[in-house]
Amino acid sequence: GDSVTQMEGPVTLSEEAFLTINCTYTATGYPSLFWYVQYPGEGLQLLLKATKADDKGSNKGFEATYRKETTSFHLEKGSVQVSDSAVYFCALSASNTGNQFYFGTGTSLTVIP
Amino acid sequence: GAGVSQSPRYKVAKRGQDVALRCDPISGHVSLFWYQQALGQGPEFLTYFQNEAQLDKSGLPSDRFFAERPEGSVSTLKIQRTQQEDSAVYLCASRWGLGSGNTIYFGEGSWLTVV
Asked: Do B91 and A51 touch (CB under 8 A)?
């Protein structure tokens, strides 16, 4: 079945460091891919998305490119800030029905000054 | 309202008690989802509504879990005879359209603790 695997955390970085959080997926057809973020005490928020191969989603300095050949959607940011501390979830929406979102287990990021 | 609203935000239930969790989706959103999120895990799909029709309930863990959306707007997730393993955050989400590329918007969740 469809699934998402993302790198385990927690991840601790210094401010202004480069961030990569790996995400790979397994799916039939052509899914849409998402990154959601959960700040402390808040609900899940969409960070970015890509709906077809080679699309790049971007928001708030974060980027991820939908790579069909490697079935990946890695999240990157060139210079993290303390305010980026949160849990990041990679997610997949199956193309056949769109009824289910499959989430990864989440990667906790802490950015220290 | 502007976002997905869930109530109660926090619920402590004694084992064996019934609970009802309410979700007010974004106005006009056709699709509504319920997810269960255990501590330190990603959300797990429970059920999906398209308007008032429950099209997928494959994720409901047992027949103690029941969801409804009678008028295609507000939804209620009911858990009967709660067990300790039901302790989790229950997330409601809604989506405007039906396509897989459309964004789903989450509420802040209902935190259920069964003691």
From this structure: no
